[in-house]
Amino acid sequence: MITGKTKVVGVIGDPVEHSLSPVMHNAAFEYYGLDYVYVPFHVKKENLKDAIKGSKALNIKGLNVTIPHKRNVIKYLDWIDDAAKLIGAINTIKFEDDGIKGFNTDGKGAVMALKEVTEIKNKKILILGAGGAARAVAFQLALEGAKNICILNRTVEKAEELAKDINKKTGVKTNSGSLELIEKEIKDTDILIDATPVGMYPNVNQEPLVKAEMMHENLIVNDLVYNPIKTTLLKEAEKAGAKTISGVEMLVYQGAEAFKIWTGMEAPIDVMRQSVLKELK
Questions:
Q1: Is 132 annotated as a binding residue?
Q2: All residues at 6 or more sequence positions from 7 whose CB lies less than 8 Å from its CB, including other chains
């Protein structure tokens, strides 16, 4: 029941109809009996500044920020956390009396998902893609003590730029190149992360960038695509006997971090995960 006391949080993006965050967060609020509601707001680029000002004026407690606003929104905030400074993008806002605060929980979400199955410290990590998700995850992995990060991308310049940035800002050895180098680089890789949209709904039968015969059984394979739950890449990884992590995990853990920022409480991870899985099935 929504009343005058109900606290409002939400997500802003363009488009926003596909977002699973409302389902996930409302399930968490319901589980704890919290008087909160999570709403999607469709905000176009030209209305971003007004949306942030309006949210504060309407006493909205917090927002998730998705494509295309993650970078542009920073100029309307009063403070951003260290991870967001390094990444140059935010995905979570908290409206407080002393200002509007920005956080990036994307990288943290990916790392928490990985930590369920492996340590990050001293590992060699291969990341495919060099967009926003790849950037958030790569910086967080560097902060967590990865030994070596390799970024391969279709547009080599983007991979080079990201690798240089990580090297400079964190000191972690980061190299880059084209997707042709996958077979060479994967041989001694501990963790493979696909941060490209390959295999994402509706292109569920798209050929994956890495086939089973390129993988080894000690590899951990994490696809950041969460729809479908089991992508063509994860199916190949299973064939190779590698450990797999679905993109659902990063989605859930980044959401759990946002939940904690807004409420000060630990999120009910299982409840959030089940609500997402139910929606995807």
A1: yes
A2: 34, 35, 36, 37, 61
Which residues pair with residue 103 across a beta bridge?
A: 92
pLDDT of res. 97: 95
Residues 6+ apart with CB under 8 A from 126: 150, 152, 182, 185, 186, 189, 191, 192, 193
Told to judge if 230 belongs to the known catalytic residues of this protein, a careful annotator would answer no
pLDDT < 50: residue spans in the chain:
none
Q: How far apart are CA 231 and CA 268, in angstroms?
A: 26
Exposure letters 62-84 (e unless 16+ CB within 10 A, then b)? bbbbbebbbeebbebbeebbebb
User: What tens digit of pLDDT does each residue of 257-270 get?
Assistant: 999 999 999 999 99
Cα 193 from chain centre: 12
Domains detected in the chain: 7-104+250-280 (3.40.50.10860), 107-245 (3.40.50.720)
The Cα-based distances of 96 to 34, 60, 102, 261, 267 in angstroms read: 19, 10, 11, 11, 20
20 is in an annotated binding site: yes
> Which of the residues 70, 101, 108, 123 is marked catalytic?
70
Please report the pLDDT score of residue 238 as a whole number. 98
pLDDT tens-place string over residues 70-95: 999 999 999 999 999 999 999 999 99
4 is in an annotated binding site: no
* 146-156 pLDDT per residue, tens: 999 999 999 99
Give the pair of three-digit tokens for residue 153.
């991308």
Q: Are 250 and 113 in contact (CB under 8 A)?
A: yes
Q: What pLDDT shows up at residue 129?
A: 98
